[in-house]
């Protein structure tokens, strides 16, 4: 039986993991490859690297990070952030990434999803959707620039459109819940879950193991992603999986 | 020992190369038939669409390589799309002819099970392998119910019972995970991305080559 997946997310800036990760066991907690190994040993099912580099050099460094990770590890990982063209996708996938995730570039040019999907296969193309409730519109809308700017598209409609264009997976982040640690936005996730037939990764709001349980069962998300609670050791991948197992959720 | 990875321009060879190297084998990546046939065993990787892959194999003059692989009993491992290409036909983007080393065809997941319930396509993530039998090179491994990483929208069906080694259950379908006939093996999942179980499988295959069992 296919398991639910637990995915730690690493924000990488100029080749270094940011968010002040504190792991005494690591030689270098800012080294994305060291951290990737740590999460692999903890039982992470997959990893997401989000490149938040501001410079061209930083993005070049990301290719090295991807190559080193693929050399050291035998679990799948996705690279997002700064993927704007088919050439960007090619570089990351050739360097050993299993999937690439596109966000704002796909909003500006939805054909990018189709191009990537036709060329590499749908399973390589993840579309990241940053959604936030809009009182004005009475639904979830797409937001860009870290949730500051509203993009004139409904989240659920965009999810459908992205899948029709060839997205093989959706990474849905609630900008309302992100950083709040009060649980995932299961209402949003349920709507998206019902609208598409590809795997959906829940993101934004994880505070404890129960939140993972809720989103993986109540909203039927296929995977759940978190960053800071894993980095700050508020919980661990192993602890979350043990809890899920105790509640009868099939995990690896 | 030298493993030849067949480079016909489809997909991510890097992870496969690294996984085999980590296990101590030498790797050559090549599209040259003579160079590949000089290796002890071959891996046919592949990510992408079936018809594109067959076209690339034809363009790189590599289709005839497989006749010699069969004739010389050279161990061959097809991974993911590389496994699917070993079958007779595929329905991906039309009716396609494959290499025909295994009987059977490649069908698409319907997205609806027998009860009419929807399931997700692609089949993406960790699923457990259920073994029907163990090839000689794998007989010392206890891998029943271990999880491996799948990511695909098409799967092998109508194959010979005797060729099926292990399968996963998805959407009520029997999804062949490992197939094997003589020196030809196919893995639908990615052993190079399947954690400890993937490492055990690749290790056993490499050892089997050394011992002449694979």
TrEMBL record, chain A:
- UniProt GO BP: L-histidine biosynthetic process
Q: Which residues form the signal peptide?
A: none
CDD domains (UniProt xref): HisF
Kindly give the InterPro entries that the UniProt entry links to this protein. Aldolase_TIM (IPR013785), His_biosynth (IPR006062), HisF (IPR004651), IGPS_HisA/HisF (IPR050064), RibuloseP-bd_barrel (IPR011060)
Q: Tell me which residues this entry annotates as catalytic.
A: 11, 130
GO cellular component entries: cytoplasm
Q: Which Gene3D superfamilies match?
A: Aldolase class I (3.20.20.70)
Its pathway is: Amino-acid biosynthesis; L-histidine biosynthesis; L-histidine from 5-phospho-alpha-D-ribose 1-diphosphate: step 5/9
Kindly indicate whether the keyword Amino-acid biosynthesis belongs to this entry.
yes
Report the catalytic activity: 5-[(5-phospho-1-deoxy-D-ribulos-1-ylimino)methylamino]-1-(5-phospho-beta-D-ribosyl)imidazole-4-carboxamide + L-glutamine = D-erythro-1-(imidazol-4-yl)glycerol 3-phosphate + 5-amino-1-(5-phospho-beta-D-ribosyl)imidazole-4-carboxamide + L-glutamate + H(+)
Q: Where in the cell is it found?
A: Cytoplasm
EC number(s) for this protein? 4.3.2.10
Q: Keywords, A to Z?
A: Amino-acid biosynthesis, Cytoplasm, Histidine biosynthesis, Lyase
Output one GO MF annotation.
lyase activity
Could you describe the subunit structure of this protein?
A: Heterodimer of HisH and HisF.
Function text: IGPS catalyzes the conversion of PRFAR and glutamine to IGP, AICAR and glutamate. The HisF subunit catalyzes the cyclization activity that produces IGP and AICAR from PRFAR using the ammonia provided by the HisH subunit.
The Swiss-Prot or TrEMBL record describes its family as follows:
Belongs to the HisA/HisF family.
What name goes with this protein?
Answer: Imidazole glycerol phosphate synthase subunit HisF
From TrEMBL, chain B:
Principal subcellular localisation of the protein: cytoplasm
User: GO molecular function terms here?
Assistant: glutaminase activity; imidazoleglycerol-phosphate synthase activity; lyase activity
Q: Where is the Glutamine amidotransferase domain?
A: 5-196
Q: Which GO terms describe its biological process?
A: L-histidine biosynthetic process
Q: Where is the signal peptide?
A: none
Subcellular compartments: Cytoplasm
What InterPro entries would the database entry show? Class_I_gatase-like, GATASE, Imidazole-glycPsynth_HisH
Q: What Pfam families does the record point to?
A: GATase
- Glycosyltransferase found in the keyword field: yes
Pathway per its UniProt entry is: Amino-acid biosynthesis; L-histidine biosynthesis; L-histidine from 5-phospho-alpha-D-ribose 1-diphosphate: step 5/9
Reactions accelerated catalytically: 5-[(5-phospho-1-deoxy-D-ribulos-1-ylimino)methylamino]-1-(5-phospho-beta-D-ribosyl)imidazole-4-carboxamide + L-glutamine = D-erythro-1-(imidazol-4-yl)glycerol 3-phosphate + 5-amino-1-(5-phospho-beta-D-ribosyl)imidazole-4-carboxamide + L-glutamate + H(+); L-glutamine + H2O = L-glutamate + NH4(+)
Active-site residue numbers: 80 (nucleophile), 190, 192
This protein's GO cellular component annotations are: cytoplasm
Under PROSITE patterns, the record lists:
GATASE_TYPE_1
Q: Per the record's keyword annotation, is Transport included, yes or no? A: no
Question: How does this polypeptide assemble, per the annotation?
Answer: Heterodimer of HisH and HisF.
* Function text: IGPS catalyzes the conversion of PRFAR and glutamine to IGP, AICAR and glutamate. The HisH subunit catalyzes the hydrolysis of glutamine to glutamate and ammonia as part of the synthesis of IGP and AICAR. The resulting ammonia molecule is channeled to the active site of HisF.
Q: What is this protein called?
A: Imidazole glycerol phosphate synthase subunit HisH
The gene name reads hisH
